[in-house]
């Protein structure tokens, strides 16, 4: 394997986090491989990235009903999903074409659905021979994630396979280990707490709602503080400085509350936690599972957030807390019934163990590369 292309997008940090995990795995398998990145939104045109990020944040925070309507329309109307994907595929694919031709990758890895749409268009128009794998980092696939002309669509759990195939019945779908960096793995909780200065006997709830830190984070912090005197909430505000400023008076009054901005020690904090509280179920949820930590989905965001929450709950990996008080109730139940916490933690660990290594999906795609090379040599 000489050249690997990662197609991602800076839509928050989740898609790029998946890409970094894949890049690490590529270098473990093929140390000499050169990895190049393309941001699908940047490729689609100047200003597209900022515009799409504004639309996404605005929909989630101000018009969740509109986001939910679009999401449900993709599922209810196959023609709408097909037309939307084809439109984006032409837009992104035409602009990707020259960049892909110039680089000449042996393997292409996509972590962003609009990038996958462009790669699917290239494949259908015979402009991309290299194997392509799309890592669907949302726990619940939706129609914009899955493409029939890609070599592999990799989902995060066995329960995600049926909805992926419902999106595109002819798609090639496989289950991947969580695409997270190697630091996210089961570890010693006491050692992590000592390193981070967290109390060893507390019930630590790590609150992380992505790099943008949006959603009902303040309410989550208050509910956790009121749930039980042993609860220590650790709130990661990410790049949302306003959120940190809003929470600071509460932290000043209640020393149990720990506030973090952007941190490079998310793996240590996840290992140190008893539970991870989030609202979207993307990269943060996958990192929690990789560390064997139960997930509490607090007021999941519209559309894909709610779908992720429900599928994770169906798999026994999360508790969904939709209404006022449910987060506190869930924490009290886990403190009072440690066997339930243990069962959820074991389910997460078992799932990660049963899916094999992240490299397995790359090896499957690498085998396609070898087969294509043998075929071209024979011709």
Automatic annotation (TrEMBL):
The keyword Plastid does not apply. Residues 20-179 form the Diacylglycerol glucosyltransferase N-terminal domain. It comes from Amycolatopsis acidiphila. The keyword Nucleotide-binding does not apply. The lineage of its organism: Bacteria, Bacillati, Actinomycetota, Actinomycetes, Pseudonocardiales. This is Glycosyltransferase. PANTHER family: MONOGALACTOSYLDIACYLGLYCEROL SYNTHASE, MONOGALACTOSYLDIACYLGLYCEROL SYNTHASE 1, CHLOROPLASTIC. Its main location: membrane. One of its GO terms (biological process) is glycolipid biosynthetic process. Residues 205-348 form the Glycosyl transferase family 28 C-terminal domain. GO terms for molecular function: hexosyltransferase activity. GO terms for cellular component: membrane. It comes from the Bacteria.
